[in-house]
Structures are given as structure tokens and as C-alpha cells.
Amino acid sequence: MTAHSLLTTLLPLVADLSRELPEGERYRRLLQAMRTLLPCDAAALLRLDGEWLVPLAVDGLSPDTLGRRFKISEHPRFEVLLSSPGPTRFDSDSELPDPYDGLVDGLHGHLEVHDCMGCPLFVDDRPWGLLTLDALDTERFERVELDALQAFASLAAATVNVAERIEHLALRAEDEHQRAEIYRQASGQQHKEMIGQSKTHKRLVEEIKLVGGSDLTVLITGETGVGKELVAQAIHAASSRSEKPLISLNCAALPETLVESELFGHVRGAFTGALNERRGKFELANGGTLFLDEVGELSLTVQAKLLRVLQSGQLQRLGSDKEHQVDVRLIAATNRDLAEEVRNGRYRADFYHRLSVYPLQVPALRERGRDVLLLAGFFLEQNRSRMGLGSLRLTSDAQAALLAYGWPGNVRELEHLIGRSALKALGNHRERPKILSLSAKDLDLPSESAPLIEEQAELPVVTGDLRQATEHYQRQVIGACLERHQHNWASAARELGLDRANLGRMAKRLGLK
Q1: What is the mean pLDDT of each run of 10 residues along the chain (513 residues)?
Q2: What highest taxon heads this organism's lineage (predicted)?
Q3: How far is it, in rounded angstroms, from Cα 384 to Cα 31?
Q4: Which of 313, 316, 318 is nearest to 256 (CA)?
Q5: How far is CA 316 from the centre of its chain?
């Protein structure tokens, strides 16, 4: 590595420091330059977040790596790199497991990383994260290249510093981070973050930031399993109430009488079993946020009582005439079409309008493109840690299967699928493998239209864009099912294994409604 080649590689990055670039593009250029300077099979930039390392950019690693969250205590190579003041190169015969084993992109076999080096990044003299380089060939890196990596790390730290300062100026990121950190510590949800890079997901995140800074009542809508509770947590974390509690209640989990008691509290003797006075969720959330999940399941009676609290901020505990004043921001969520429920007389119009001051639609997983791979990576790393594996990865056909599937159960279905498939795949090995790969066969994705298998041969073959082909097929399946049931949507939804409201939204998106 000559001084001239080093300078040639670094000059474009120096020029980038004065340019306004998206954070992801800035980091992508950084890794590409590093691979030019120090040829390797894979490179990654990881940010330190407490006891975790979060990948911000990868080059040469599988896409799901961006969704993984590496717990430092479970990855000794990361511990070594973070404890060193400068670059570290591991011996090719090192017995320390490599976090990237099985994750190098484009490889179908179980080839493991054989040469690895990395360097900690410091911003304002504080550890910020890591740069890592990996190669499949033994002795790919030379000792002299450690100096080049150290020089590059200094520029990388400057790049990171610039990116963070830009983000701070644009979004007041530091203040948001502090509030979110307080929230995470209070709620115990240390790593329940929103993962995704699709335009649809980014639009949702921007909307969350927008409404989070207000005190408006938010109605979160979306299909089952899209993560509505996670969105509610993010709204609270972005609000001025983030230091106060976020109290949740699933309205579908309790009978009507207990829902009232849970919401408003009760006094001793208010009903059989009320042995002591008790504060309700509203009083517990005073000064903070109350999240009502499955709000579409509330009875008309409870809706009327809730409306009064929302209008006046005053409530009475069950069995008491005493008024209690509360200051609560309400966030509600439902997978029902509440406007249709109002039209059918099953929901109060005044309560619905009070809830939907700011309606927020959470996109279905099938609308988020390659985000499914990032989310899969997150769940793969969770299961790898839980099962004590060295590596848990997806084969290329498994990745293709995840991208092609329609996900009627959304993110929750993906989470359960990864956990179930990993457990089954491990059970098929007599000895615990170092690297466990999940294939499309292991995933065994269900058919969304099982009752119509014999009719599939009659459907026209569609070529070209995969998403267009999938939507065309869905139109055919749903249309044929509706014809058989004389356009009875409830009956068609049962046959297709979908919630009626979800089927309605899907049909509207496909232009069938």
C-alpha cells in the first residue's frame, strides 16, 4: 500500500465531508473506499449502543445483517476490538468465533471467515463503534495494512462525526436520543426499535416524529401483526411526555365490567371482589400517555364514558362520586375499519372522531419490500443468541421465499416463522452445527390460498416484475373466492384465512373494491 494509493482513496471521502449526503449513502461510500484500500470479501460499520453493536452499513454481507443486533458479550471478537485502542488483526487460526460466519453475501456453502481485522472508532474521544473487514482466504491481510486501517479509521470517525452533526442540526437528534433513552430505561424495552429502510417505512418514521412532537390524539390503524404497539411506543418516545409513563391496555382482553375498572379504577366494594381501592390506567398515566390497543372492541357504554374523560379530563372511579382530574395523551390502535363500524351503528361517531384526530396507517409487511430481510436478520440474531448457535443464516432460496410471500400475518408472522423454523432445523441435526442455515424448505411458508390449489393451473402465467405478478395472482385468487361466495366478504375472508377488515384493505389496494 503506497502513500499515493492511500491518498487517492481518501481524497474523495475528504471531499464528501463538505457535501450534504444522506447518512446511508455517506456510509456506503465509506465502506466502498475501505474495500478499495484494503481488498476484502466483506466490510461493516457498526455503532455502539450500550451493550449492543448495531450495523449501520455493510458491504459484501447478506442484507439481513443490517437487521441484526449483536450483543457484545456474546461475540468475543467484538469485545477484543472494542477493548483495543487501535486496529487488531486476528490470527487465521484464532478459536474465537466470528460473528459473520455464514453471512458473507453470495455464498451458498458454509464457508467460514478465515482472516479478520477491525478497528474501534472514537468520536470526541469516546468509543463510537467499529469498522470490520473479513476475508475468506487465510492470510489475506498483511500486518503492514494495520497502519492503513488506522489512517482510514481516523477519516471514518470524521465522516461519522459530520453525519451525526448534520442529523443533530436537522432533527435535534441528541434531544430525541436522550428522551428515547429515558423512555427505554423506564419501559424495559431496551431494543424494541423500528427496523426498516424502505420508503414506506421511512415515511411512517417521519410521520411518527411529526405527530410525536404534538399532543394530538392518534389513531393507529393497520392489519394484525404490523407492530401498532411499537409505533405507539415510538410516538411516546418522541413526545414531550417521554419522561412520564406509557400505560397500555388491551381492550379485547377483558370483559366490559373489568375494562371500566381497569380504565377508571374503583373503590372498595364497588363490585364483588373489589376488596381495596384501586387507581385505573388513566390515573397511572397522568402526565404521560395511555395506549388503548384493540380500541375497536370497546362497548358503546365504555365509549361514552371514555368520551367524557377525553373532553373534560375528569373521571370517577367505579363506585365513587369523587372527580379525579387527569392530564393524559391518548393513543389508540385497531385493525378494524371504525368508519364502517360507525356507519353500521356499532361505534359512536363522536368517539370515533375524538380518537382519529391524527389517523396513522401502519403499512403491511408486503408493502415494505426488502425490509422483510432486515427484520428477518433481527429475528435470526435473537434466535441465534437464544439457541446458543455460532451463526444462524438464510440461504439464497430462503431469502427469495421471504420476499415473494404475501405475509397476511405481517411482522408477527415473520417473527414466529423464524423462531419455529430455526428450532425445527436444529432438530434435524444429530450434532449441533456451528453454522445453521435455513432454506426455503425449512421455512415451509404456507400457501395463502390453500383451498384453491387445484385452480392454480387455470391462472394465467405472469412474467416480469415480481410484485406486479404477486398482486395479479392475489387479484385472481380473491376474485375467484368472492365469486364462489356471491361476494359475501365475511365468508370469503374465512376461506382465505384472513380477517375481514384485512381482506377489505387488500382488495381496495388491488383495485377490487
Answers
A1: 53 58 74 81 91 92 93 95 91 87 72 79 88 83 72 78 59 42 44 84 95 95 94 95 91 80 77 72 91 92 90 82 88 94 93 95 95 96 92 93 93 95 92 91 72 40 64 82 74 74 81 79
A2: Bacteria
A3: 26
A4: 318
A5: 38
CATH of the domain spanning 3-171: 3.30.450.40
Q: What pLDDT does 352 receive? A: 95
pLDDT score of 499 = 72
Does residue 127 come out as left (phi exceeding 0), alpha (psi in the -120 to 50 range) or beta? beta
Could you please state the CATH topology (level 3) that the domain comprising 199-361 is classified under. Rossmann fold (3.40.50)
If DSSP codes are grouped into helix, strand and coil, which group holds residue 442? helix
- The residue to which cell 473487514 is assigned: 133
How far is Cα 502 from Cα 509, in angstroms, rounded to an integer?
Answer: 11
What's the CA gap between 504 and 339, in Å, rounded? 13
Write out the CATH class of domain 450-509.
mainly alpha
Domain extents in the chain: 3-171, 199-361, 368-443, 450-509
Question: Which residue, 302, 304, 311, is CA-closest to 280?
Answer: 302
Residue 254, CA atoms < 13 Å, CB-side half-sphere: 16
Q: What are phi and psi of 71, to 5 degrees?
A: -80, 120
Q: What is the dihedral of CA 380, 381, 385, 390, to 10 degrees?
A: 90
3-class DSSP assignment, residue 250: strand
Integer Cα distance of 213 and 74 in angstroms:
37
How far, in Å, CA of 275 to CA of 428, rounded? 53
Residues 6 or more apart whose Cβ sits within 8 Å of residue 448:
405, 406, 408, 474, 477, 496, 497
Cell representation of residue 423: 428450532
d(CA 115, CA 391): 17
- Confidence at residue 9, expressed as pLDDT on a 0 to 100 scale: 56
What is the number of helices (H) and of strands (E) in the chain? 19, 15
* Cα 410 to Cα 193, 218, 384, distances in angstroms: 16, 22, 22
The secondary structure element, H or E, covering residue 471 is helix 466-484
Q: What is the CATH number of domain 368-443?
A: 1.10.8.60
Q: Are 128 and 84 in contact (CB under 8 A)?
A: no
